Each structure stands twice: as C-alpha cells, then as structure tokens.
Amino acid sequence: AQTVTQSQPEMSVQEAETVTLSCTYDTSENNYYLFWYKQPPSRQMILVIRQEAYKQQNATENRFSVNFQKAAKSFSLKISDSQLGDTAMYFCAFMKISGTYKYIFGTGTRLKVLA
Amino acid sequence: KAGVTQTPRYLIKTRGQQVTLSCSPISGHRSVSWYQQTPGQGLQFLFEYFSETQRNKGNFPGRFSGRQFSNSRSEMNVSTLELGDSALYLCASSLSDGGGEQYFGPGTRLTVT
Predict the structure, then answer these.
(1) For residue range A10-21, what is the model confidence (pLDDT) as tens digits?
(2) pLDDT above 70 for B85
(3) Which residues in chain A are contacts of B101 at CB distance < 8 A?
(4) If DSSP states are collapsed to H, E and C, what string results for chain B?
C-alpha cells in the first residue's frame, strides 16, 4: 500500500523569503504522479504543481518548484519570494497510474507567511 | 465553466441519524471522488465513482455509501451517525483519463452532536 508522509505539521516564513515543504512517500509502483495542493483558509483546494514520475526534470510553476528524488522517494516543494497569499495548508499527494487510480494524501503542512 | 459545487455547505445532525451530501462536478467530468478531512488526519479517501460505477473504495465502514447519477452528479450517505463522523467532506471531480488534476468543491462541514 502507498503512504505519503509530511513531517512538518506547521511552518512559518517571512514575506519574500524562500521556504521548503517536505514530503516522502512509499510505493512499489514505477509509474505515478505526485502533486502539491494548496488549501487557503476557508477556501477551496487547488492544484499547485504536478510531477510525473517518469520525468527526471523537476516541475516548476512560477514561484513554485519541486525537488523530486525518485530513488529516495522524496518530493519537496519550494516556494520562492513567499507572499501573504501563500498562507495555506499544503497537501502532498500520490496517484498511481496503473490500474484504477486513487489519490493518497499526506496529513498536510500549515504554512503561515509573516509580514 | 462552473466549478464543483457541494450542498449543503453546513449540516448539524445528532448521533444515530443519517445524512446525504450532494456534489455536482464540473461539466464534462465523469469521475467524482469523496474525501473526509479532519485535523491531524488530512484527507482520507472514501470512494470514487466513474460513469455511475464505484471504481475505488477507501477503508471506511459500510455506513458510508455513495452513488453517481447519469449526469455525473454524486451523492454520499452516512447512516447511523457517530460523533467521530464530524468532519469536512470534500468532493473532487476530474476528467475520465485519470491523468491527474482533481478539482475540489468547497466541502460540506458536518457536525454530529
């Protein structure tokens, strides 16, 4: 069975600084997707970034980038130039591609950006 | 395009009662998944429906059930409510290819007293 672990329940960062959120996962699958989702306070969850396991190049989306280490089963999210609007819960998620798919989410990291 | 909608947004029930939650996916999305979100537990997968068929199921007791209609709208039902069922229930829809992104609704906040 797949598991996703986020070991940092809470983090804070000063505005304009850089912060890295950690995520590790366990799977015997070779083909899968990894995701970071963001859930702002009292707002809907939205996708931040996606990584296909077969791609060696790390995904980037503007100020958001990942460090994907497949052998180590590590998938961290780096937020550069943090903004107040980045304050949210961040969830790491795994989805296998073979067979029927379903998401496995981590327990989340609550990030607070300080002015 | 309208986003995923969930009704009702808030619900208060007493132990032993049953409840039905509704989810309308984004137009064209045929897959609907349900999650239970509680502090400290993150999102726990309940089940996923695709073309009116339950395609995946999480590790929840049989009190939790769901269905999907031909227009892809989905409902989930919880019978014999327990205090521990208090949670935010999220619905997410996605395209049929399973290619990844899920689009979440605002959730239904269920409180069991």
Answers:
(1) 999 999 999 999
(2) yes
(3) 35, 47, 50
(4) CCCCEEECCEEEECCCCCEEEEEECCCCCCEEEEEEEECCCEEEEEEEEECCEEEEECCCCCCEEEEECCCCCEEEEECCCCHHHCEEEEEEEECCCCCCCCEECCCEEEEEC
